[in-house]
Amino acid sequence: EGDSVFALDNTLTRGGSASRVATQLHEAGLQVVRFGILVDREEGGREALEAAGYSVSAAIGIEAVLRILIDNNRLTEEQQRWAESVIARRTSI
Asked: What's the CA gap between 19 and 54, in Å, rounded?
């Protein structure tokens, strides 16, 4: 009780799961000082957690992952069209 923790997860989407984890850890007497995320899906999760007072670090964002896959020809033509449409939607917002 009273210890600070660094919460780690593989992906972050809207922040709901991370918020539930933070609540459970708080109820157990622990304080989440930061969230570490492998891939931020860039769908508002970071902003939601930061608005709730948490620091967030992500290794990479989904747009960067898609660009790396496209640039290195790691996708089928269909997957590449989909990835490019996702990137286009994000940049038009």
From this structure: 10
* Token pair for 48: 């939601």
Packing angle between helix 77-92 and helix 62-71, nearest 10 degrees?
Answer: 140
For the stretch 1-13, pLDDT in tens is 899 999 999 999 9
Give the pLDDT confidence of 43-61 residue by residue, as tens digits. Answer: 999 999 999 999 999 999 9
What distance in Å separates the CA atoms of residue 91 and residue 9, rounded to the nearest whole number?
26
User: Is residue 47 within a helix (H) or strand (E), and if so which, with residue range?
Assistant: helix 45-51
The candidate with the shortest Cα–Cα distance to 84, out of 19, 2, 71, is: 71
What global pTM score does this model have?
Answer: 0.83
